[in-house]
From TrEMBL, chains A, B:
Keywords: Oxidoreductase. Belongs to the aldehyde dehydrogenase family. This is 2,5-dioxovalerate dehydrogenase. One of its GO terms (molecular function) is 2,5-dioxovalerate dehydrogenase (NADP+) activity. It catalyses: 2,5-dioxopentanoate + NAD(+) + H2O = 2-oxoglutarate + NADH + 2 H(+); 2,5-dioxopentanoate + NADP(+) + H2O = 2-oxoglutarate + NADPH + 2 H(+). The gene is aldH. InterPro entries: Ald_DH/histidinol_DH, Ald_DH_C, Ald_DH_N, Aldehyde_DH_dom, Aldehyde_DH_Superfamily, ALDH_KGSADH. Signal peptide: none annotated.
Length: 531, 531
């Protein structure tokens, strides 16, 4: 093991910021300069994982004995601290990701993150996520309980809102009563460290077990697979590339450990000729905003537009092409993203997609790639649906032009599972038959169906599904965003059969523990006490 | 392919009872005589699976267009038909399983089966399983929708209530709006065929797609794995042995297809000395009834009893041993079950368990094995926890005697996931500390915790969890029994974002579709219309 030096950042294990056990280090890159940042982060050896797991098991036992309100207090305190530390967090995230400081990082993503923690805290406090169910006649009561230590692997594209130590999976796992072992995304380790510092302080302030939140920066692939499949692990949340996610899934599945994955998605947008004839310019504007925002680096970026040939479609294509050309290419998150985008575009061209604008090599002075628009026909798509669904993560999109609505429907029938699917039709209702046919094919393929709206906004709503059929995620029944839905992923269903009243968890006793907790009592949802 | 003959039973595919494509046949055994029954059943080739999958995809599309009430009507009609066909079903099930005609088959299991279908029909009709969620401010509404064709593999021990064509998984999959491809359990194919005949008639009578229910009797292992991982399959429900289940799980996981498994479980029962001192005879009686009922062939059979050494425990062991000796050994379901039980007992003895009574070889004139009671110490258990958790499915149980409550808790800490865990303590509350310590360890290990009650009853209740941590099942968040909970396994979460009101599924429109459907509207559960 190399000797740790002052520049190698410490890991957070069992409540201590201490030197990592590591065999290698890495640095993040400032994508605006394509230059490595100074701070070095350790690639932890298994020993760090092992110690984190032991500490997490102990924390999980302690957390089970604490009232939910204590956990909620921690989350709320942490949220306040994130808000207070805004300036330094935004500076760090900007340096590591190149995402805009304002409004994106400071005014959109950071408040979303602290508010997401507060919403999860509220669900934790009421227990409304836990589906308390009481059958007085049978003498059986059930509820979702904590599952045990949760490993969270965050993605590169949201340094706050999906960060492994502050984002959606983190908030859900903690609110469900579990400790988290966070694995930083390698593109923004310093931002993750700064967040973890706030989390650690908030833990101390609220008296939660110190190992409720732990942080390592990176492991070998083999140790990552060992971590998600370890007997001490309760479950894993992962957001990122398909390849790495499926390797973790294989390991977790084999060990019988739940793993929730958010992988790739091309997010098809179907637009009928009548919609374009009616409000083509408006739709062009909505599409351009959605597809180029954040340099297209959203899980729900509209990477495929499905059209039916004709005059209005030709006009749409010409207009979008112009706007792709005239819009400046945004900065990408990292050299890896630029390289991957370039490689995906090359693949799509090799499969026969026509390059309308963009393509080429990544810029050298910063992490960037030309806004890229590609086109193919639905019949070509149908000849190689897998190839044409290659995700080009970033400021790129593929237009698929069908001969007819029927052919467009056939193409949709060959789509893989996606997070979202959009349908734009005429507002005057003149193409309701087409709308109906397309919706029927599209709905089973997507986690969220949108009408007359682009997919990039992901509201934190009880009705949100940020999920979808495989391979968009690993299971079609769970959402990664939305309170209380996202919490149940990290719960274990427990039924209490004839259990003596004084031994029941508070949420299952006759008295409603908060006076506002929703429980399914003898077939009726109510906040009342059990009579 | 052998020419089919009059004695080879037909499969039910795409609404037709037709000759199977098969390479081999098999016969069930009458376990009371240890003799093969006359009827021959085909081992279908992939062609049958392929045709069933195509028909199921088509049926799934048609079902999505039908109102839930139509599906509910089918299930209710089918339930009535099962009740009407009771005599022939009971005769067949008795011949194939040796389970008692009355009360077990005729008066307990058959009514449970038809009532389970009716309960699922009710959940289907109201949509109360589908968790309709409406966020009026965000304009987002979500609901669980059908997932697509469901393959169901039923177990040997419940020819009606868990039958792949009439049992819990079947009812849940159909009620969630999915067609079922049923794979008969090889121990009772004729009973399964008779049930499928009733299902097919009920489909015709209620106008549902004929391929809503299809039946094959057996496939090769490879074709089974292909079936659960096929792109056309939505999900799989499996109840049975761990080995076969894990092979299917590996195939399904790799393809990203949900699979719900109910595998093995030893169902630990912890009994404190104070409970035995207080009411030892009573507990002996409850245990004997539970462990020998149905010749111990329940998923929730109490296969392990955890005790603390002492006088009351010695008396309990002596009394249970006497009762095991004096009770007649019941008939086992099949030669395979007798062989497997004998093999498991041998293993446990090899690991060092002491044989208190029973053991030996299976009987030859019928499928049976001596009532078998084994004993070990908690310290021996702790030296080989995996070995001592070998499931001995049938009329057998292992007593684990600890030196202290602390040691008993340590042993529990090494248990695998189980369906159930029971705790018997003194009713006078004198050992509440022990109860608390044991419960704390036992709860995370089990899907259902019981107090002062044996685990073999599995009520169909909204609060029932017939599930549990791996390897009892494949996921700790789902139940295989209980309406509406079991249905959500076969649902896909879909969010409708800004979708035009007229295009929303009925359950998500402002008007409550039945007037009694529970929906989470703006954070409150209600049956009211959206204001």
């Amino acid at each position: 093991m190399p000797t740790s030096t002052a520049t190698v950042r410490p890991v957070l294990i069992a409540g201590q910021w201490r030197d990592a056990n590591f065999s290698d280090t890495y640095q993040a890159t400032d994508p605006n300069k394509n230059e490595r940042l100074a701070a070095e982060f350790p690639v932890s050896s298994w020993q760090d994982c092992d110690e984190a797991l032991n500490a997490a098991v102990d924390a999980a036992r302690q957390l089970r004995k604490l009232p939910s309100a204590k956990i909620a207090e921690f989350m709320e305190r942490y949220a306040d601290r994130i808000d207070a530390a805004k300036d330094s967090l935004v500076e760090s995230a900007f340096a590591e990701t190149g995402l805009g400081k304002s409004p994106r990082l400071a005014d959109v993503e950071l408040p979303r993150t602290s508010n997401q923690l507060r919403a999860a805290a509220k669900a934790c406090r009421t227990g409304n996520w836990a589906m308390a169910t009481i059958d007085t006649a049978a003498g059986i009561r059930s509820v979702f309980e904590p599952l045990g230590p949760v490993c969270v692997f965050g993605p590169n594209n949201f340094p706050f809102a999906f960060n492994s130590v502050s984002g959606g999976d983190f908030a859900a796992a903690i609110a469900a009563g579990n400790p988290v072992i966070a694995k930083a995304n390698s593109s923004h380790p310093e931002t993750t460290r700064l967040l973890a510092e706030q989390a650690a302080e908030a833990l101390t302030e609220t008296g939660l077990p110190a190992a409720t939140v732990q942080l390592i920066y990176r492991t070998s692939h083999a140790d990552g697979e060992r971590l998600v499949s370890d007997a001490r692990t309760g479950a894993t949340g992962y957001t990122g590339s398909r390849g790495a996610g499926l390797a973790l899934k294989a390991a977790a599945d084999k060990a019988g450990k739940p793993i929730y994955l958010e992988l790739s998605s091309v997010n098809p947008v179907a637009i009928t000729p009548a919609a374009l004839a009616e409000r083509g310019d408006e739709i062009v504007g909505e599409f351009i905003t959605s597809v180029l925002m954040g340099t297209g680096q959203f899980c729900t970026n509209p990477g495929m537009v499905m059209l039916v040939k004709g005059e209005a479609t030709d006009k749409f294509i010409a207009s979008v092409t112009d706007k792709f050309k005239s819009s400046p290419a945004g900065t990408l998150l990292s050299p890896a993203v630029a390289k991957s985008l370039s490689s995906s575009i090359k693949k799509l061209c090799d499969f026969g997609a026509e390059l309308l604008t963009g393509g080429g090599e990544p810029e050298s002075g910063r992490c960037a790639y030309a806004n890229t628009l590609l086109k193919t026909t639905a019949s070509e798509f149908l000849s190689n649906p897998e190839g044409f669904q290659t995700e080009a993560f970033g400021n790129a999109s593929l237009l698929v032009v069908a001969d007819s609505v029927e052919q467009l429907c056939a193409a949709i029938g060959h789509l893989e599972g996606n997070l979202t699917g959009c349908l734009y039709t005429a507002k005057d209702g003149s193409d309701e038959d087409a709308a109906s046919a397309i919706s029927f094919e599209l709905t089973p393929k997507v986690g969220r169906l949108l009408n007359d709206k682009m997919p990039t906004g992901v509201a934190v709503s009880a009705a949100m599904n940020h999920g979808g059929p495989y391979p968009a995620t690993g299971h079609p029944g769970f959402t990664a965003v939305g309170v209380p839905g996202s919490l149940v992923r990290f719960g274990k269903l427990t039924s209490f059969d004839n259990v003596r009243p004084n031994r029941l968890p508070a949420i299952l006793q006759d008295k409603n523990p908060t006076g506002e907790t929703w429980r399914l009592v003898d077939g009726k949802w109510t906040t009342a006490e059990v009579a």
